[in-house]
Amino acid sequence: MPLAPISLAGLRRPLALAVAAALGLGACSTSSGETGRPFDPAGRRTLEIGWTTRGEVRHLFGAPTSVTPGRDGTETWLYEHTQVSTLTLPFYGLVRARQTPHRILTIRFQYGLVSGCTFFEERYASRGIEIVPDGQVVESCAR
């Protein structure tokens, strides 16, 4: 049984739409920036002033983002993390931006033991291209 010839005229429009859709999806772009490294902020509740050592803190949170020595033998470790990302769909004029909570954990040491701890977290809401603050937490985190 011979095959019927296929008419390309009927396929041109759907094919053109499929190609345009594929090019449109390929033209979208994403970008992101990150500050610091992720850490588990729940671990802050296990810190005890005068008992928790530098080694235990490093085990809980990893290496700090920065270490600042004090003149009196104190030391301050800073843990920080946030990530900002954008999605751009140029053919639709759509740009979306978002940011994960910005978390900062500051741990102070005296003689190698935790002497104080502060936790800061700011949450954000996305409104198209705008990222606006949407609440924050500031608390002492060691007991």
Strand tally, please?
A: 7
Mean pLDDT: 80
Counting copies of identical and different chains, the oligomeric state is single chain
Give the helix level as a range of percent: 10-25%
The ordered H/E elements are HEHEEEEEE
Which structural category do the helix and sheet elements fall into? alpha+beta
Indicate how many domains the architecture comprises. Answer: 1
Radius of gyration: 26 Å
Report, as a whole number of angstroms, the end-to-end distance.
86 Å
Low-confidence stretches: 3-26
Number of helices: 2
Coarse shape: elongated
What does it look like?
The chain is α+β, with helices and mostly antiparallel strands. It has one domain. It is built from two helices and seven strands, in the order H-E-H-E-E-E-E-E-E. It has helices at 9-26, 54-61, and strands spanning 29-36, 66-69, 74-89, 94-99, 102-110, 113-127, 130-140. Strands 1, 2, 3, 4, 5, 6 and 7 form a seven-stranded antiparallel beta sheet that branches. A hairpin with a 2-residue loop joins strand 6 (113-127) and strand 7 (130-140). The radius of gyration is 26 Å and the shape is elongated.
